[in-house]
Automatic annotation (TrEMBL):
The lineage of its organism: Bacteria, Bacillati, Cyanobacteriota, Cyanophyceae, Nostocales. Keywords: Thiamine pyrophosphate, Transferase. Residues 55-165 form the Thiamine pyrophosphate enzyme N-terminal TPP-binding domain. Signal peptide: none annotated. NCBIfam families: TPP_ScyA (NF035923). Belongs to the TPP enzyme family. Its EC number is 2.2.1.6. One of its GO terms (biological process) is isoleucine biosynthetic process. This is Thiamine pyrophosphate enzyme domain protein TPP-binding. Residues 442-585 form the Thiamine pyrophosphate enzyme TPP-binding domain. GO terms for cellular component: acetolactate synthase complex. CDD domains: TPP_enzymes (cd00568), TPP_PYR_POX_like (cd07035). InterPro entries: DHS-like_NAD/FAD-binding_dom, THDP-binding, Thiamin_PyroP_enz_cen_dom, Thiamin_PyroP_enz_TPP-bd_dom, TPP_enz, TPP_enzyme_TPP-bd.
Length: 624
């Protein structure tokens, strides 16, 4: 799961509190906590002086506070009422969502916004199953998220309890056990398990990378008392993962043997400064995955473009005209959304692939020679900077950069809005004119945003590639805005907005989220893709929807934009607003989105393809 991993050297678990978050202590005693840290009257968690009136639910809430959790997102229910109450009376800010999947997406984005673990809470039965898609995305994205759920108490199992949650009704494997979905999962049947659970969570959260856990607490156990249970005194420090001296020496040898390129993924986001220094020291060309946008400045002369879905043809131009001997891959799996497994991206002598997950190097391109290095990206690049020689200035060539096509003049009637005109306005008002986080939903919103928006800072752009669930950005934008304490903008499609939005939640908590809806009355990636692939008869249309009316009905501010001349004013009004804001943009549904690379990949996997009509070309990477 590696490209998602942070590779950060910043402490996650320590005996010292964060200055900005005084409650973030992993080892506490009642004598160490003053009243300001012991928020809401919650007792300090599990020590020799723990009063007998402390319930398991209260102890879990305080445990989460000590693990650094500041936000919990979820939907309540009777089976977890005690746990919900304990969370609500702790220092954790509890946000009640309208759907559990939206809560999980928001928790995922909150983690990436503040680099702290987050909580999702659900009731039994459908509460758990509703959350699974969002938790699947959390695991795929590499977030640190803990699911707290209720389950049926032992005496009632098998007796058709309301929303019974037991092995009689749900498969335990994968939901209540560790596996592909959860890194760690356990059902808490006794307070005596809490010290061991606390130790496991603390140790796991100290490691680099993602961690998704599930604590299932039976309804009856939540109110049971904690007696004679002491928390182990943990002194847990982060686990830096550094390459061996031999691996560093071999990497230096390989990279010194000829020109090389750098391929940057999301897992390298904590090493932005070091990667910039490495590129300028060596003259290496730099490309990035869609999730890696902004880690290396996209306006830098050595940036040759984004690869994969919504990427740039300039990358292929570079690989054809100035091919590197090797490519240094930093923090990306090189999966289909990043590479389409294109042979055009394979350098002559192969890859040096650095990741914290030892199973990642060589997976996407098993036939290509790959020297795998298991290491934190930042630590690895720092070592390279010490040992690699500077590139001679005479060998630093002019590199191709992402193409920026001029937008054609507006037609006499500037209706409907062309997507490329909308993106140019977003670039000007949102990207360059504010510090807002920008998120793009899957589908054409993803490809237009990734292809046309340009970022020069890390942590400004977020997309989901591996899972790509509809509704991720629509709801995740709340978590990003909340945890970053700034504006967050979701560029989303009408299909995703209809599927799973949390406008009502944003209104309740006054979260300054902004939605820009590409309203074309279609699932347009599907509509355009089916047409290009020559598959007929499938219906991807939607009834026209007035999203501004819906948003205003929920208490948000909203505008409908149907003309290109009104876009910038609408964006300025949204970014200046202090309340949730939606802009419903009626776009030209027939403008071909830059998703040709996806269609080519589908065709290579056996989907029937037909040639483009009238010699038209797709504008995505790679060209179709």
């Amino acid at each position: 799961m590696s490209q998602n991993y942070t590779g950060s050297n910043s402490p996650l678990i320590t005996t010292e509190p964060y200055k900005e978050f005084p409650a973030n202590r992993y080892v506490e005693s009642s004598r160490q906590l003053d009243e300001s840290e012991n928020n809401g009257g919650t007792q300090p968690f599990l020590n020799d002086e723990t009063p007998a009136t402390l319930s398991v639910a209260d102890a879990i809430a305080q445990m989460l506070v000590n693990l650094g959790v500041s936000y919990a997102f979820g939907v309540a229910g009777g089976a977890m009422a005690s746990l919900w109450g304990a969370l609500s009376n702790s220092s954790i800010e509890v946000l009640n969502f309208r759907h559990e999947a939206g809560a999980a997406f928001a928790a995922t984005e909150a983690h990436f916004a503040n680099n702290r673990p987050t909580v999702v809470f659900t009731t039994a039965g459908p509460g758990i199953t509703n959350a699974l898609t969002g938790l699947f995305a959390a695991r795929g994205e590499g977030a640190k998220v803990i699911l707290l759920s209720a389950c049926t108490s032992a005496p009632q199992r098998g007796r058709w309890a309301i929303q019974e949650t037991s092995t009689y009704t749900l498969p335990s494997g994968g939901i209540f056990t560790a596996g592909a979905l959860f890194n760690y999962a356990i059902t808490i049947e006794s307070a005596a398990q809490l010290p061991q659970i606390f130790r496991k969570l603390a140790m796991a959260l100290a490691q680099p990378g993602g961690f998704v856990a599930h604590l299932s607490i039976p309804t009856g156990v939540q109110t049971s008392l904690v007696e004679d249970v002491a928390l182990p005194q943990l002194d847990v420090t982060p686990f830096p993962m550094t390459a061996s001296k031999e691996a560093i020496a071999k990497s230096v040898e390989l990279l010194s043997s000829g020109p090389f390129a750098i391929w940057v993924g999301f897992g390298a986001r904590d090493a932005a400064e070091e990667i910039l220094e490495l590129a300028e020291k060596t003259g290496a060309a730099v490309m990035c995955s869609p999730r890696g946008k902004g880690i290396f400045p996209e306006d830098h002369p050595q940036f040759v473009g984004v690869t994969g879905l919504g990427g740039h043809a300039s990358v292929l131009t570079y690989m054809e005209q100035q091919p590197p001997l090797r490519t240094l891959v930093l923090g990306t799996r090189l999966g289909e959304p990043t590479s389409f497994w294109s042979s055009a991206l394979v350098p002559k002598e192969g890859f040096i692939h650095v990741d914290i997950d030892p199973e990642v190097p060589g997976v996407a391109y098993p036939q290509v020679e790959t020297f795998g290095v298991r290491s934190d990206i930042k630590a690895f690049v720092e070592e390279l900077l010490e040992q690699l020689p500077d590139a001679p200035r005479s060998t630093t060539l002019s590199l191709p950069n992402p193409e920026r096509k001029a937008i054609e003049p507006a037609p006499e009637v500037d209706y409907p809005v062309r997507p490329e005109v909308l993106m140019a306005a977003i670039q000007k008002i949102i990207v360059e004119g504010s510090d807002a986080i920008v998120m793009a939903e899957c589908g054409n919103s993803f490809t237009w945003s990734t292809h046309l928006l340009q970022f020069t800072e890390t942590n400004r752009y977020r997309v989901s590639t591996g899972v790509g669930a509809m509704g991720h950005a629509v709801t995740g934008v709340l978590g990003a805005a909340l945890a970053s304490n700034t504006k967050a903008v979701g560029i989303v499609g009408d299909g995703a907005m209809l599927m799973n939005n949390e406008i009502s939640t944003a209104v309740k908590y006054k979260i300054p989220a902004i939605w820009i809806v590409l309203n074309d009355a279609r699932y347009n990636m599907c509509h355009q893709g089916m047409k290009i692939l020559g598959l007929k008869g499938a219906d991807a249309t939607l009834p026209p929807t007035n999203f501004a009316m819906i948003a205003r009905g929920m208490g948000a501010e909203a505008l409908v934009v149907v003309r290109e001349s009104d876009i910038e004013a609408a964006l300025e009004q949204a970014i200046a607003s202090s309340v949730p804001f939606l802009i419903d943009v009626v776009i030209d549904a027939d403008r071909p989105a830059p998703s040709g690379g996806r269609n080519k990949s589908l065709a290579a996997q056996g989907i029937k393809s037909s040639p483009a009509k009238n010699g038209a070309k797709q504008v995505s990477f790679p060209m179709v």
